[in-house]
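Record 1 of the preview.
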Amino acid sequence: MDKREALLIINKLGSTGTPPEIGIEEFTIGLDKYLKVVDSEYLNGILKNYHLSSFKIVIGNYGGGKTHFLYSIRNLAFKNNYVVAYVALNPTECPFDKLELVYKQVINNIQIPAPDNDIMTPPITGIEAFIEHWYNSVKEKINHIDAINDYLNVLKGVESISFLNAVKSAFFNIASDNYEEFQAVLQYLKAEDISKDIKARYRISERVDKSTAFRMIRSLIQWLHLIGYNGVIFLFDEAERGISMSSSKDKRKALDNLRQIVDECGNSRLPGAMFFYAIPDENLLLEGSGGVYEALKQRLRSVFSQVNPLGVKINLEELGIAPEDFLISLGQKLVSIFETAYSFKLDKDKAQALIEHIADESAKAFAYDISYRRLFVVSLIETLQRVRNEPDSLQSILTSSKETQKIIKTTGKKLETQTKQEVTDSEF
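->
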């Protein structure tokens, strides 16, 4: 890890306690038991070799590591030739009861790693960049019009003919340097309105709406499998403080959509697809009575583990590590990253004492349902910044619980303010 990456990690973690998109392997604790099973049983197992599909529900409270876990899955998927779609669900732009909006976010957020494999280079994101990359990766083999047509004609077996015609037409237009037509076809793939002329010219007859959205998601999966990817990993991240459905009617519809996805997994229509649906509390999702609630409870009951890789539920609160031991291991990694970021060196014994001191106070603290993990991360980094600028302050911090409690209390208030603002922003 170089100084630039270390600075990026520390700045992101120190400001919000949320993980950056890069470098999370440098401070991952306790997730190996889940990640190894996902890698061996799914990414290099039934998805890749048998073109099957799977669904998992991920449970972790606010600051409890959901996003960190999803980013870890994303990085594993990248290494194994999978396309990834990370979608943050929320009541305004992307509620799960409206699959047409979910599709739109998926198509705008599909990702593959940048070709140079530099972790500091942002991944290729969105359908426009993706199709450009698709063309660039094969253009040397299809350097004349007949070869382009032959290549596209081989692509068959996608459920929505309109979707397949659209991706073929987008490819053909970029290969023909017809950027204006390329953009026109992309509008359809992005679920935006297109003219009758475009529909007629490219044989697009199907609308993207609530009745066709899941069909379009299936078609996306099938197309990506056809062009050489092992599959698609969907990372659906529900709001930290609730779920993306604003009414009981919306919730029932969203749960029915979720049940439909769970039931589709395992059949041949979703080759190489895996869905991770992350929520802060399963009771928020499953509390209620009626057929759809009971149907989902039955499907989501089993627990995922090394012993039972077919289980559905991944609980990030049950890593098998005592809270304080978890924080101490995490703190050791964060101190090392901090030292790299600022070319700053702490005495090893004093650094360990500082970590244990803040870990003990963080594990006992409570702040607006903010995870002790997030509270610890931000408090530790803030303390390290203080010690870097005022070296003499270290001794007083180590010998005074009041001093540490004050730091944690200030951190908690800051995170509470950020959290409440996030809730307000998501509701309006």
